[in-house]
Design brief:
Belongs to the catalase family. HPII subfamily. With 538 residues, the chain is α+β, with helices and mostly antiparallel strands. It contains 12 helices and 12 strands. The chain is globular. Protoporphyrin IX containing FE binds next to β2, β3, β4 and α8.
């Protein structure tokens, strides 16, 4: 193959030699000039003013003044770890992705996060958690940018700025931090009722994990897999923690928020340092790739819907072990840049309109967050596969590209990079037929069902989980200043379940409204309960 013309990746160790911050035995300036004193400014006499000519002073302070980069617009608070993924080979029939082959080991970096809080916010808040995995595969980087909740608030990425504006602190008071207990959040979810399913998960124990090691992860969207024969299936990705799914009670979370706001970060670091390596199995739910893109009547392009595991069991395809803590938080956890479009051959996207918008958003935000177009060269973001792109120059360019002709084909730098046969192993977009249809700003009709799966989730809970959900809605809605918002959210609860609605209404001192839509006829799904086994009599 064509050689990588960029700086060495240092892939095997994860820390390239060129990225080591300290070399040699002596303290130096950034230019390598040896220093003898870093504690005293250069002055006109011990009591005199400081001299502008003090290069060391100015370099040290100027660099410090520019140490901060913008925090992520969402998922700002995070913790990460390195590990290894081992394929089981069980997915070979449905995907040609090499990292899933039997016994194949691939280095990974995982970043866990909360969504709404700022970088310094507490870990144990009621929120969705991010679970983003970078697989450094031989065929290019695969990012599985997942959450610990299997559905999302909205169905179309065009509403993402709106739901996040509604969830972030109020623009006037900048409160609350990382909690959903406020007017704009409840205003949004009661008006945009497709958010009711995700909101129910947020009001459940799932939104207060005991540990990152005890969380499930979900790709949320449906993806398309393609095998060596070009056959396709639709899948949903799941991470299943070896330790099981466990939560903090609300009271525990409140205490920990005060006594140890770094509880989850500390737990992850301490567990790995102690050799108690966290483990997950990666699994897929597999659906036939039919033109309707539905399964058992569930629209697979609707990110507010799950497919219950009784209908499509999660089939294990590999194992993840986290076995190494970061050396430097900024270099690894802060600078890592995930993107749902980083896919290896064998995994492709679908037309889920939320996923389609995400494909634009991540690289766009990282251009600002990481200071220009060359952030793929930051050590943590470098692929472990050889890179030979035609991207050139730009801010923070670290590569010294060889050659004169960054275009293909060319007759100056060594010919045609696509000779016959050489693109075996290339990423090829699945040639899905795009329906001939009028251009519209509209959703499929199936996206109009906003309450049935919230009801499914509620009915699947054990009595103690239901009790926690009732208390969470009552507490959070009790924080709203606007009565009309509380009442509108109660109407949504009435459309989900009369018992839930009545209990929360009683807690708020309000009367329970009647449903405005027929209650969905759904059966409980045992896999949704953390307790399991004991279905309530109602
Ligand atoms: C982070 C956008 C939906 C999971 C981010 C970031 C943006 C973003 C801009 C910050 C990235 C960075 O600064 O590097 C969006 C948009 C969405 C969306 C526009 C919908 C339209 C989702 C969904 C999931 C998800 C559905 C889960 C399946 C994550 C995770 C991170 C993240 C885990 C943190 C990545 C990290 O640890 O660095 N998202 N997101 N997002 N998003 Fe999304």
């Amino acid at each position: 193959g064509t050689p990588d013309t960029r700086t060495p990746t240092g892939a095997a160790t994860g820390v390239p030699p060129s990225a080591k911050g300290q070399q040699g035995a002596y303290l130096t300036t950034a230019q390598g000039a040896r220093l003898r004193d870093t504690d005293h400014s250069l002055k006109a006499g011990p009591r005199g003013p400081v001299l502008l000519q003090d290069h060391h002073l100015r370099e040290k302070i100027t660099h410090f003044d520019h140490e901060r980069i913008p925090e992520r617009v969402v998922h700002a608070r995070g913790a990460g770890a390195h590990g290894v993924f081992t394929g089981y080979g069980s997915a070979e029939g449905v995907t040609k992705a090499g990292f899933l082959a039997k016994g194949k080991e691939t280095p990974v970096f995982v970043r866990f996060s909360t969504v709404l809080g700022s970088r310094g916010s507490a870990d144990t808040v009621r929120d969705t958690r991010g679970f983003a995995t970078k697989f450094y595969t031989d065929e290019g980087t695969f990012d599985l940018v997942a959450n610990n909740i299997p559905v999302f608030f909205i169905q179309d990425a065009i509403k993402f700025p709106d739901i996040i504006h509604a969830g972030k602190p109020h623009p006037d008071r900048e409160i609350p931090q990382a909690q959903s207990a406020h007017d704009t959040f409840w205003d949004f979810v009661s008006l945009h009722t497709e958010a009711q399913h995700h909101t129910m998960w947020n009001m459940s124990d799932r939104a207060v994990p005991r540990s990152y090691r005890m969380m499930e992860g979900f790709g949320v969207h449906t993806f398309r897999l393609v095998n060596a024969a070009g056959e396709t299936v639709l899948v949903k990705f799941h991470w299943k923690p070896k330790l099981g799914v466990h939560s903090l009670t609300w009271e525990e979370a409140q205490m920990l928020g005060g006594t140890d706001p770094d509880f989850h970060r500390r737990d992850l670091y301490d567990a790995i340092e102690a050799g108690a390596f966290p483990e997950w199995e990666l699994g897929i739910q597999v659906f036939p790739d039919t033109p309707e893109e539905t399964f058992n009547g569930i629209d697979l392009l609707d990110p507010t819907k799950i497919v219950p595991e009784e209908l499509a069991p999660v089939q294990p395809v590999g194992r993840l072990v986290l076995n190494r803590t970061p050396t430097n938080f900024f270099a690894e956890v802060e600078q890592v840049a995930f993107h749902p479009g980083h896919l290896p051959p064998g995994i492709d996207v679908t037309n889920d309109p939320l996923l389609q918008g995400r494909l634009f958003s991540y690289v766009d935000t990282q251009l600002t967050r990481l200071g220009g177009p060359n952030f793929a060269q930051i050590p943590i973001n470098r692929p472990h596969a050889p890179v030979n792109d035609m991207l050139r120059d730009g801010f923070h360019q670290h590569a010294v590209h060889a050659g004169v002709a960054p275009y293909r084909p060319n007759s100056l730098d060594g010919g045609n990079p696509f000779p016959a046969g050489v693109d075996d192993g290339a990423f090829v977009d699945v040639p899905v037929t795009v329906a001939e249809a009028p251009k519209v700003r509209a959703n499929p009709v199936s996206f109009d069902d906003h309450f049935s799966q919230a009801r499914l989730f509620w009915l699947s809970m054990s009595p103690v989980e239901k009790e926690h959900i009732i208390r969470a809605y009552t507490f959070e809605l009790g924080k709203c200043y606007h009565q009309a918002i509380r009442e509108r959210q109660l109407q949504c609860l009435a459309n989900i379940d009369p018992v839930l609605c009545a209990e929360v209404a009683t807690g708020l001192g309000l009367s329970a409204p009647q449903p405005t839509v027929p209650l969905a006829d759904v059966a409980p799904s045992p896999a949704l309960s953390q307790v399991g086994g004991e279905w309530p009599a109602d």
